[in-house]
Design brief:
The protein has two domains: 127 residues, no CATH class; 39 residues, no CATH class. The chain starts with a helix and ends in a 20-residue tail after the last helix. It is mostly helical. The chain is built from six helices and no strands. α1 packs across α3, α1 packs antiparallel against α5 and α3 crosses α4.
Length: 177
């Protein structure tokens, strides 16, 4: 399987930026100050931003593998793979952290965390799927070449008068008589 590195890197960067925007919004920032806050957070803690990018690259690699393994990569295929992974892997893993100390007060933070993961996985998968070039399968190339080969063989067997190919058992041409 070929990995779409450009799509993977784009998805990782978008996932990191989405994380900062998502938690800044649910942490009380309004949209007018959101971009400023995101940039300030990255500049304030570059190590954490770097680790978030490494984490997003690993996630994007997994999404690229999943999207490629699911069949023909596309925007829809990547989106579906990302949604599935977000709910099945991301959501359940985060929920496991809340279960030991469960209370009704934890419902909102749980939904915020799971919501981010599902959205990040879906967007990441969609970006990877949308930016992946589709390769023709060998059977598609063969299927497209077969009619041309038959046509070439028919032309090669044609009589001098151009009406058909070959001779029958009696030495007569296959053309009009």
């Amino acid at each position: 399987m070929r990995i779409n590195w450009i799509g993977l890197i784009i998805a990782a960067i978008v996932i990191v930026l989405l994380r900062y925007a998502w938690y800044a919004h649910f942490g009380g920032a309004d949209w007018g100050h959101l971009v400023h806050q995101t940039i300030a957070d990255i500049q304030a803690n570059k190590k954490a931003a770097g680790l978030a990018l490494v984490n997003a690259l690993v996630l994007s690699f997994g999404l690229a593998w999943l999207t490629g393994s699911a069949g023909s990569p596309s925007l829809g295929g990547g989106l579906g793979a990302g949604l599935l992974a977000g709910v099945v892997f991301g959501g359940t893993t985060v929920a496991a952290n809340y279960i030991p100390h469960w209370s009704n007060a934890q419902v909102k933070p749980l939904l915020i965390d799971v919501g981010y993961l599902v959205l990040a996985y879906a967007i990441g998968g969609a970006l990877i799927g949308a930016t992946t070039r589709r390769r023709r399968s060998r059977s598609t190339v063969f299927d497209m070449a077969a009619p041309a080969a038959v046509g070439a063989a028919t032309i090669a067997l044609a009589d001098d008068d151009g009406h058909g190919g070959g001779h029958d058992d009696h030495g007569h041409g296959g053309g009009h008589h």
